[in-house]
Design a protein that fits this description.
- The protein is about 40% helix and about 15% strand.
- By secondary structure, it is an alpha/beta fold.
- The protein has a six-stranded mixed beta sheet, with helices on one face.
- Helix 13 links the parallel strand 11 and strand 12.
- The radius of gyration is 36 Å and the shape is elongated.
Amino acid sequence: MKPLPLYLLEVLFCSGLLLAFYHLMLVRRVAFVHCRRFLVMAILLSAALPLLNIPLYPARTRIVTATLVGEPAPIAAAERSPEVVSLQPTGGAAPKPAAAEPDPARTMRAVAWGLYGTVTALLLLALLRRMVAIRRLRRRARVTDRGDCFVAESDEVETPFSFWRTAYLGSGYDAEEREAVLAHEASHIRHRHSAELLVAELARCLLWFNPFLWLLQRALREVQEWEADRDVLDRGYDLNRYRQLLFRQLFGYNPDITCGLNHSFTQNRFVMMTRPETHRHALWRLGAAIPVVVGMMMLCSFTTRESSPAPDAPSAATSSESAPQRSEVRISDGKICFNGREVTAEELRTAVIAWRDSLSREERSGMTVVIRAARAVPMGSVTDVKDLLRKAAVLRVRYKTMEGETEVERLLPPRIEALPEGVEAVTPWERVPGNSHYPDSYRLRMAERNYFMVQVNARGTILAGTQGNLEQCGVEELKARAREFVLNPSHDPSLSESRQMEIDLPDGRTERYETSRGLFGIHLARETPYAAYAEVQQALSEVYAGLRTELSRRWFGRPFEELDEAQCIPVQRALPIRIFEADLHARNAQPDVAHLSDAH
C-alpha cells in the first residue's frame, strides 16, 4: 500500500484531470447518457485507480549485495532469508532507555486523522438522516402505483422530487402541470438517477476534502436535469408552459440526494432545452477518454517490483548445490572436500578464490558456500574453514548436517576480538588497531544483562542464561528462554534492555516497538560436535522467525515469509537478529562476555 499523502495527491490529480476532460470534450457535445456514465466513472476511478497496485516486473531480478558491517542491505526476494541479519553500529555511546518524547509529526497525523474521521462521520450521519426523513415522508404520504413508478402525494412536499422508484408531489397542480411533473420525475426514475447520486454522495462523504469531487457531483446533477427536461419535451409538452412550471418551483426545496425540478436551475438549463442533444464526432470524443484513463493507470497504479524466478529456474534458496553461485565444503573424518574434490586448507582458500573470480559481478552477490559436516565433526575444524572463507571474501554460509536434519544460513562479518577486561557498559564499535591477522576486526563492549550466553561443551550439553545464571537445558527450553530474553515482558532487570523505536511502515503508518538490545553469544569448545552447534543455531533462528511472524501478522496481517521487500525492512528493524560466536582462537578463552566473534 502506498503512503497516504501520495494517495491523496493522486486522487486530486485523477479527479481534476477527468473533470477537465469532461468540460473540454464531452459536455454539450455528446449524449446525456454518455455524460452521466462518464461522470459516475470519473468519481469512482479517481478514488480507485490510486488504490491499485499493479506490478511491473523487470527482465532480471535486481540483487543488492549485503554489506559487511551493520544491517545487511535489502536482498532480492529470492535471496532473502529471515535469519540473515547482523548488528548495526550506532556510533556513540548507547543511551539508556528513556521515556518517549512527544513527536510533533505523530501528533499532527493524529489530529489530521481525527479531523477526517469527525467530518466523514458527520457527513455520513447527515446522509443517513436525509434518507430516513424521505422514508418517513413516504409512510405519511398517499402512495399510488402507476406501474412504472410510485407516486407519493403529501402537503409536506413543497417541490417535486424523486428517490429510487417513488416520485414525491405536493398539491396545487392542474392536470397538465401534474403530468409534466410526473413525466420529469419518471424520467429520473427510469434512468436510475438516484443510484448515481447516491454513489456520488457516498464518495463525497469519504473524500470530502477533494474539491474536484464536489464539482463532478454538481455536473452529474446538472446533466441529469438536462436529460429529464429533454424527455419531457420529447413527449410533446409545450416549451413555454414547461419553463413557467420550472419558475414556479424556483423557491422550493427538496433533499439534495434526490432528483427534483429545482436542481441546477440556471440559464444553462433553459439553453439546453433548445439545443440538439448530440454533436458531431461524439464517438471519437468518448474514445479519447481511453488514453486518458490508461495514462492515469500508468502514473498512479503501476509499480515496479522485482521479478520472481521462473518456476523452472533455480533460486538462491532452492537451487541445487551445483548452481553457479553455490559451492559445498564437506568435512568428515579429518578430510575437507570442495565441490567433491579433496583439498588441503591452503588449497581450499585458493579454490574458493578461483570459484569466486569465475562468477560475474551479479552472481557474486548471491554466492553461498554450504558447509556440510558429519554430526560428530568437532567445531574447531568448522571454524578453521570459516576463517578461510572469510579470507576469501565469501560472506554467506549455509550450515547443514550430513543427515540433512538442520539447515541454517548466516553471514560472515568481520571478527570481533576478545575484550581485555570483563563486562562493561555499552560503547560504540571500536576498530582494533595494529591487527595484521584480521585487518577488519572490531571490539565490542556491552552491558551484562544484554548478553545471553549459550555454552555447548564437548559432549553437546547446552548451558544457557545471562551472566552468572547459566542452567542446563534442552533445545525446546532454550527456545523458551531465548524468547523471554528478547521480549522481556515482565521488565525483569536481569534480562535484556529495550529501546522504544518509531518505525515507519510502507503504507504511511508509524508504529512504536520496544526493540531489544539483547545479544546471543554461542560459546563452543573446539571439540563441540557440529550437530549440537547446528541445533543451537537453528533453535535461535526459529525464535526470531516466530517473533517476526507475530509482528508481521500484527502490522500487515500475514506472516513474515509472505511480505514484500518494503514490508520486510521495518520488521527487520524492529527485530534484528543478533547472534555471535565465541572466538575459538582467543587465548585463555573463558565463557564470559569478553570473548565474542563471528557476528551474524
